[in-house]
Structure to design on (573 residues):
């Protein structure tokens, strides 16, 4: 057993930052930046700072008689700074983690996460000198991070505490033998990362990462869902091989797909989708694993002509129910329950449970609600044999979270300049190759200091969601850099060369998110662009991005080196 005590007479102090050599320690921004693999959300506990956070007085780790805590500077926005601790373990497998928290002052909105931001416990209020100890179960298992092709075997456990002033008093870790609940699915299920200062109503979350907080008894959750996956790509991209190689008789495997299958003709509900689910069920049974199907969670989609709910996933839910009945597999009807939830709240009321401006992906409050529905369905559906044991592990008396306020996307503070404005410029690879539209958007977003998101919200018909550039597209949409006007017929055309005019429009929108654009003035290109783009093209002329003589060919394709030079000229890098 490993035991870490964070009080002054304990074995861990605020100076003990994580290093591979020590094998444990606190995760800070400096630690993550010095170890590039820790910038992958799957390997750092699922928290990343917003770009402007480092320009504030950084939070430091302090210590009181009750443990180590975060002393955070007051920022320009509300939010919590998490305290994060990482510890090496001997091998992959199941672990019992006991976390104790005690404080001199009242703690509010207390959450304890393990692994990849998997919620283990929630407490609305912890009174001064009150001791809160929770027993958590977590699975250490390899994973293929988004955008990667290889399996990362990170033999460590991460514990993260968020609150208004989070504290860690004691952690105990020991291996256990217990069943594992594996999850296969898409972005609505996966362990989503969050930015900090942490605000739960504007943090993406999948219901899979909320499930551990609703389980009691020795059972771990190993979530192998990823954004953009289908019943087919879950296997093709190597994700299925991980749980199938390590699961043992008596384990469970949940499957929820459909959001991305419906974008591919060969994965229609009654065709490829149904066949793939049947194959997964057969493979589970062949090795003694208990399969469970989950109907796809409903979107907050409504028709504009009559204001009625628009069910986009009904046929996939029906296919799940059909094959479950045919193959005697429990089916958790999350689609039906989540759709009833949305219909009850109506469009505006349901928005509180989704990420701002998103109709598919939930925030932490919504993901928690969906996880509660999953548990209710397990109790209703899983009643016989080994499934009955699983049903006994779900909480019936749930501590409800307070109703979330309707939140807007996080705003960038006035005066923010990307940190790396002063960084040494790196010339792009293949400067003489055409700059593709996906590459151009990714270049601009990264140089402007935005984080690429881990989801995609289905606007364009030629993007499935698992492509390397899907997160950049979603980030561009959410921040007003990419709009439908630049994408006729709802086609982004990611692998076509970008024209100078489209690149400049994207570039000036990104620049305008950081600094004030010059006002509209007559421009030699006014007759060459649509009226709504004239202010952006005019600003580009005034800032020297375009020639003031009108000699630039706006319809000409751009090259990688040219795009990099334009970003450098504006210093959004």
């Amino acid at each position: 057993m490993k035991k870490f005590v964070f009080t002054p007479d304990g074995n861990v102090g605020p100076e003990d930052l994580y290093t591979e050599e020590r094998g444990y320690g606190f995760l800070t921004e400096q630690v993550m930046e010095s170890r590039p693999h820790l910038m992958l959300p799957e390997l750092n506990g699922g928290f990343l700072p917003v770009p402007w956070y480092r320009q504030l007085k950084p939070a430091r780790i302090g210590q009181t008689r009750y443990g180590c805590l975060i002393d955070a500077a007051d920022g320009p926005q509300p939010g919590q700074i998490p305290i994060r601790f990482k510890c090496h373990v001997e091998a992959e497998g199941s672990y019992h983690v006991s976390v104790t928290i005690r404080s001199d002052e009242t703690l509010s909105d207390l959450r304890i996460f393990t692994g990849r931001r998997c919620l283990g416990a929630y407490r609305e209020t912890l009174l001064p000198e009150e001791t809160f100890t929770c027993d958590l179960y977590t699975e250490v298992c390899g994973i293929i991070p988004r955008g990667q092709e290889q399996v990362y075997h990170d033999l460590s456990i991460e514990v993260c505490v968020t609150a208004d002033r989070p504290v860690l008093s004691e952690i105990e870790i020991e291996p256990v033998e217990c069943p594992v609940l594996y999850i296969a699915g898409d972005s609505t299920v996966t362990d989503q990362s969050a930015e900090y200062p942490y605000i739960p109503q504007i943090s993406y979350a999948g219901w899979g990462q909320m499930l551990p907080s609703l389980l009691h008894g020795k059972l771990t959750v190993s979530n192998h869902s990823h954004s953009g996956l289908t019943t087919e790509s879950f296997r093709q991209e190597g994700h299925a091989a991980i749980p199938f190689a390590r699961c043992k008789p008596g384990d469970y495997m949940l499957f929820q797909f459909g959001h991305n299958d419906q974008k591919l003709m060969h994965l229609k509900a009654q065709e490829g989708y149904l066949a793939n689910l049947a194959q997964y069920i057969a493979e589970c049974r062949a090795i003694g694993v208990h399969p469970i199907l989950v109907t796809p969670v409903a979107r907050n989609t409504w028709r504009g002509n009559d204001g009625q709910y628009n069910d986009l996933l009904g046929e996939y839910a029906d296919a799940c129910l059909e094959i479950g009945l045919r193959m005697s597999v429990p089916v958790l009807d999350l689609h039906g329950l989540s759709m009833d939830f949305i219909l009850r709240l109506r469009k505006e009321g349901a928005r509180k449970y989704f990420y701002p401006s998103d109709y598919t992906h939930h925030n932490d409050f919504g993901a928690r609600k969906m996880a509660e529905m999953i548990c209710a369905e397990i109790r209703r559906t899983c009643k016989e044999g080994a499934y009955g044991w699983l049903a006994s592990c779900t909480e019936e008396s749930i501590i409800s979270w307070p109703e979330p306020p309707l939140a807007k996307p996080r705003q960038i503070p006035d005066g923010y300049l990307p940190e790396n404005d002063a960084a040494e410029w790196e010339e792009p690879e293949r400067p003489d190759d055409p700059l593709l539209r996906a590459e151009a958007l990714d270049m601009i977003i990264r140089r402007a200091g935005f984080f690429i998101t881990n989801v995609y919200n289905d606007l364009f018909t030629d993007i499935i969601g698992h492509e390397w550039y899907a997160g950049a597209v979603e980030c561009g949409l959410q921040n007003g850099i990419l709009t439908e006007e630049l994408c006729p017929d709802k086609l982004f055309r990611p692998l076509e060369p970008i024209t100078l005019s489209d690149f400049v429009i994207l570039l000036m929108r990104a620049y305008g998110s950081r600094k004030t654009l010059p006002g509209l003035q007559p421009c030699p290109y006014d007759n060459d662009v649509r009226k709504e783009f004239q202010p952006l093209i005019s600003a580009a002329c005034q800032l020297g991005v375009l020639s003031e003589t009108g000699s630039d060919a706006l319809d000409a394709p751009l090259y990688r080196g040219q795009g990099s030079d334009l970003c450098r000229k504006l210093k959004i890098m």
Summary: The longest strand covers residues 93-101.
